[in-house]
Amino acid sequence: MPVLTTSRLHELQSNANNIRNICIVAHVDHGKTTLADNLVASNGIISQKLAGQLRYMDSRKDEQERGITMKSSSISLSHTFKEQEYLVNLVDTPGHVDFTSEVSTAVRICDGALVVVDVVEGVAPQTKAVLKQVWNEGIKPILVVNKIDRLISELKMTPGDAYKRIVRVIEQVNAVIGELFSSEIMEKAEKNVHTDEDIDDSEVYFIPSVGNVVLASAYDGWGFTLSDFALLYAKKLGVSYKDLLEKLWGDFYYSAKSKCIMDQAEQLGRKPLFVQLVLENLYSVYNAFLKKDKNIIEKITSMTKVHIKPQELNRSDSKMLIQSFMSKWLPMGGCILDCVCDLVPSPCGLSDKRVERLLSKFDKPFSSLPPETQALKPFFVSCDSKEGTPVIIFISKMISVPGQYVTRINRQTLTAEEMDRKHREAKDKYLQKMERLKLGEEEVDIGEAISEDHNTRSSQEIMIAVGRIFSGTVTEGDELYILGPKYDPELGLKDKRQEVEVGDIFSQKAITRSRIGKIYALMGREMESIGKVYPGNIIGIGGLQDTIIKSATISDSLACPAFTELIGSSMPILQTAIQPKELTHMSQFVKGLKLLNQADPCARVYIDDSGEYILSTAGEIHLQKCINDLEEHYAGIKVLCSDPIVPFRETVVADDLKKGAYAKPEYLVEGSVVGCHCSVKIRAAPLPGTVVGILDENSELIRVASDVVNAKISGANKNRDDIRNGTDIFTNLNRLKGKLEIAFKESGCTFWENAVNEIWSFGPRNCGPNILLNRTRNFRNASFWGDYAEESENFDLKRYGYSFVSGFQYATAAGPLCEEPLHGVCFIVEEWIADTERDVVSGVFLSGGQVMSMVKDTCRRAMQARSPRLVLPMYQCDVFVNADVLGRVYAVIGRRHGRVLLEDIQEGSTTFLVRSAIPVIESFHFASEIRTEASGLAIPQLIFSHWETLDLDPFWDPLENVEEEDEDIEITVNRAQAYINQVRRRKGLPVRERIVAHAEKQRTLSKNK
Amino acid sequence: MSSKIFTPTNQIRLTNVAVVRMKKAGKRFEIACYRNKVVSWREKLEKDIDEVLQTHTVFLNVSKGQVAKKEDLVTAFGHDDHAEICKKILAEGELQISDKERQVHLESLKKEIATIVADKCLNSDTKRPYPISIIEKAIKETGYSLKPNRNAKQQALEVIKLLKDVLPIQRAQMRIRVVTPSGGKLIKNRLSQISVTESEEYDDDKITAVFLIDPGYFKELEELVRQESRGHGNLEILNIKEMTVGEEILE
């Protein structure tokens, strides 16, 4: 078959009826890329001999090294089927669980999927996952049962056993489909959608006789469907083709006596027809070639009319021989492409259901969309390339391509003459260059590889948006709307109707208008520039790197909605803190991170509160790929990664709720300023849980309110905006006050009576979940709710009130355990004496700073008087897990000190939902551990949920107690202490640990005496 | 145990010795301890004295094996109970810091300085704090050498000045409000030199202003306000640390 030339490509692309967009999906190592190799080889891009070894689609270095695919890549192939020429856009996807997001982007832009299953391994976890994705997206699957050669040459199964094996694998796949089918029906039934009583499910299954199952060995380069053999034998056996096709698969046998096909083969102990006609032949071919039996080989080759060169026959490697014979006899590429052209719908055949699903998001029914949007539907189906058809393109992902792969040169088949000319040209060039070198001129780069439109060096990365045209024709340089994922056509249209200026729309509603750059056909590793493109094709578009982040919809009509976001089956859950190795590279580093964020559908980069750059990835391998990309392509610098710093909180023990316990005299701590008549009595108490909850929820409100209160007190000039916001805030604030009042009352403790009105401040940063209560007798006016500074006549309060509060702010920002902020602690001021008059007399002046440090210090001691506790941030972890590995998931959760909150079976399946709470600090690499333990059958998702007190005295030493008790007790580490020491060591605070545990066990450094 | 087994040596050689010395009554007394243990004992982390002392004997010279005489002990300490005197010397004597002790000390000092710097400073471009690890690296790049006997806060302030050449860094600012009935002119002048003023009302020597300052100027300003207003002015801290908070997604 000829190599696809650009002009030919153009011709094919314009005929949407003959376009097939397919992707290859499977579990890792089931042979996707090898299969793709075969298809590529059938187009003559690579040699048939190299197919299976070259892994043409794995263009990355690390992909080749590791032998796994890490990104999806696409190539256009041509194929002749039933005397028509088809264009097949093939997308190869990665199989590893970390890259599930790549699969979802691929599935979105295709109409069909080749689901590859390893016949030896059967249905694997990822097979289920991809089947689910294919199902959800509603595209046509074709099953490829791969690696059949292993049954023959490696496992040495008998033909009968091999048959049973294949049957079982197909059944397994159908079982998964059945489960998906039934749960969809259940869902519909739940939503009370009217369904027919008996839904026909025969169409969705894989049945060999229908032709949607291909039996193959990608490694040896062969593959066939039943129809291939049915054709072959129909004449020989004197049975009609149709009849044979139906009976070739199943419990039938051929009786030589009666020369007809009979059923119930198994019962009669006969070999099924498939074994008789297909497998046994395959076996004899394999055996002949493995044993190198020349006579039989000759017989076979003459029978099958496959010509093998004599020098090949003499080769010692029998494996090679099989490959070259089989790939000629039953070429896999041809067979699969036939199948694809036959079964997969063309882009014109987009089903109504799928269009509706693409267009309507947020579970809104299609009919609720604006009429303008609904009117777009027929264009999807017609795939019209006429002028005036609205342009709709969905960009599923951004890829970054090294400049050298983007060619502008049209690929053409070279005639001998042209070859000759090129050769001469090259020679001339070389000679010229040599001359120039001789003359001592500077070497000038002959800029062939440089793409002129980008004016960049070939080593630089070019961002290309990969997507599919659903409707309309696009030419380079067109100006179109780029609609972000959050765009809502209703808003856009409304604005348009009211003729709001275009600029206004852009700013807010996720729309930009941009010029289309170069349009490329994706050719595996390379890109070919094509000026214009027709609907139904998968293409790459340049020049959009500034407008698109991860995915987008491109259209010339504002009525077009943004396509529903990809179904995120894998969340980025592995968090890592990254930083450049050299500080001077900071700006490149940040730029690289932005590119990474854009190009990787599943990576998320953000700056957290402590200023660290956090990279969230789907798993370890994904992380390594991201780091690799960052180091080699996007940033070009070395980066370091580590576990991110986990924040903690500190609180006091919340065991006793009776009033007596709160009011204990030993909890009241006194502090004073040296040399001044200023002293304070403070006690610390735990706040009721409900109150803490309310404070956590409303921290933003409190922060704004504190600002406003401050501003109001100062009486500084404010514009009207502030006041309007202010009144708004005060109504909210009153609501908050009411809520707090109820919460305090519900705690059922008289200690908190009137507590709400006594609130003086919140901390830290004026908005945290800690409260300063004012129970002094002499400073009654100091309160958060009223603006005391104006009303109060007390000068001392006016002067030192802020310092007092600042002291409290400092105290709550860093606790005594490990200098982390406090959480849910209440400081009650019971007495504050500030007799400045007397001080002035004695010539001492009390400064605000002194008051501040006194309060800070006293609060800290008050907290230590109660027993302090560590508070851990907790993740809520949802795991969807198969019933068989439920136990192991529980074990992992237990090891991570997690707690199971809920276990629920998913209806219509054997999957359980396990909800648990896990401390964030224990969650690193949790996802990968759970995946390995559950052999991929569990998918965890982590979200931050709440703060939880670790009820363990950080100062209790387990080692001391154990000695007194039973010796057998396992020596456990005090977790709270361990966490605290970890933080203290990080911060350089003194750690209560001996430098050397055993004096005698140190290395002896004395000289020999 | 050792009393039950007879070992035919008349010399006990000590290895891994750390000597603690004490001068009293004109004599120098020494005890032999294990390395890296004395500091832990003083911090009351090590409770087993046998893990600290090599032998419960007070020496005049450990390396020569000269044991202190009874009369010397009595004149210096009032009694000759070796175990008691050992404890006293251990608690009060001059200490030879061992390798690991020094290492731990320097390491924690370095971390502490980095923590203080990270706490006090912001990235002047993003107005966000720097992670401690970045600060540590930057300190290394400035080539600042730590002084083990000066406190961390002082050194941190020095380091911040040096860091400005390496990183876009600035002190986190304090938001402060000043309200005075008099002396406003001087205060205003000073403010314009050292701060970014957010809002200001100046009227007949009265001033009400909200502004951002470097925390280093707080004391000076407080003093100024007090003097100029004759005790009637007021300086309030509105926000200890002005910075951007919350997560930010890179796009």
From TrEMBL, chain A:
Lineage top rank: taxon: Eukaryota
Coiled coil: 409-436
Catalytic activity entry: GTP + H2O = GDP + phosphate + H(+)
Record domain Tr-type G: where: 17-242
Family matches, as Pfam families: EFG_C, EFG_III, EFL1, GTP_EFTU, GTP_EFTU_D2
Location within or outside the cell: Cytoplasm
GO MF term list: GTP binding; GTPase activity; ribosome binding
BP-aspect Gene Ontology terms: cytosolic ribosome assembly
InterPro entries referenced in this protein's UniProt entry, alphabetically: EFG_II, EFG_III/V, EFG_V-like, EFL1, EFTu-like_2, P-loop_NTPase, Ribosomal_Su5_D2-typ_SF, Ribsml_uS5_D2-typ_fold_subgr
Cellular-component GO terms for this entry: cytosol; ribonucleoprotein complex
Keywords from the UniProt entry: Coiled coil, Cytoplasm, GTP-binding, Hydrolase, Nucleotide-binding, Ribosome biogenesis
Name of the protein in its database record: Ribosome assembly protein 1
Organism: Artemia franciscana (Brine shrimp)
Organism classification: Eukaryota, Metazoa, Ecdysozoa, Arthropoda, Crustacea
UniProtKB/TrEMBL annotation, chain B:
Originating organism: Artemia franciscana (Brine shrimp)
Protein name, entry field: Ribosome maturation protein SBDS
GO cellular component, one term: nucleus
Protein family according to the UniProt entry: Belongs to the SDO1/SBDS family.
Domain Ribosome maturation protein SDO1/SBDS N-terminal: 16-103
Lineage, uppermost ranks: Eukaryota, Metazoa, Ecdysozoa, Arthropoda, Crustacea
Subcellular localization(s) per the UniProt record: Cytoplasm; Nucleus
Entry-linked InterPro entries: Ribosome_mat_SBDS_CS, Ribosome_mat_SBDS_N_sf, Sdo1/SBDS, Sdo1/SBDS-like, SDO1/SBDS_C, SDO1/SBDS_central, Sdo1/SBDS_central_sf, SDO1/SBDS_N
Keywords linked to the UniProt accession: Cytoplasm, Nucleus, Ribosome biogenesis
UniProt KW Nucleus keyword: yes
Main localization of the protein described in the UniProt heading: cytoplasm
